[in-house]
């Protein structure tokens, strides 16, 4: 039978390791809350999600396509020429 101190130490180390792994995802989730969709500024093939003409990220046909968006930190889109927070009609 193993030493009880070793078992407890191993269990605590496992819990700490799992917590450390979960921290980046919590931070990423918090950062995502501060993001907004910015339409009309993505380069061709660099959009984040679907458009009116396709359903996949990275498939915008042309640059500055009005229905393609990229996620930007809140407050950034309104400072970019041609950027819009409003999705085009039909989306």
Description:
The protein is an alpha+beta fold and about 90 residues long. The chain contains one helix and two strands. It has one helix at about 5-35; strands at about 35-40, 70-75. A two-stranded antiparallel ribbon has the order 1-2. The protein is elongated and about 65 Å long. The protein starts with a helix and ends in an 18-residue tail after the last strand.
Summed up:
Helices cover 33% and strands 11% of the residues.
Helices and strands in order:
Blueprint: H1 4-33, E1 35-39, E2 69-73
Antiparallel strand pairs: 1-2
Keywords:
two-stranded antiparallel ribbon; 91 residues; 1 helix; alpha+beta
Structural class: alpha+beta
Major sheet, described briefly? 2 strands, antiparallel
Measured distance between first and last alpha carbons: 63 Å
Q: How would you name the oligomeric state of the polypeptide chains in this document?
A: single chain
Strand order of the largest sheet: 1-2
Mean pLDDT: 80
Shape: elongated
Q: Give me the number of helical elements.
A: 1
Strand content: 5-15%
């Amino acid at each position: 039978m193993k030493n009880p101190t070793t078992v407890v130490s191993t269990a605590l180390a496992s819990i700490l390791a799992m917590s450390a792994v979960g921290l980046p995802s919590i931070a990423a989730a918090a950062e995502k809350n501060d993001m907004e969709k910015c339409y009309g500024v993505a380069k061709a093939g660099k959009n984040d999600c679907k458009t009116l003409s396709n359903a996949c990220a990275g498939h915008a046909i042309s640059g500055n396509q009005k229905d393609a968006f990229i996620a930007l930190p809140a407050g950034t889109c309104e400072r970019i020429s041609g950027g819009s927070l409003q999705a085009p009609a039909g989306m």
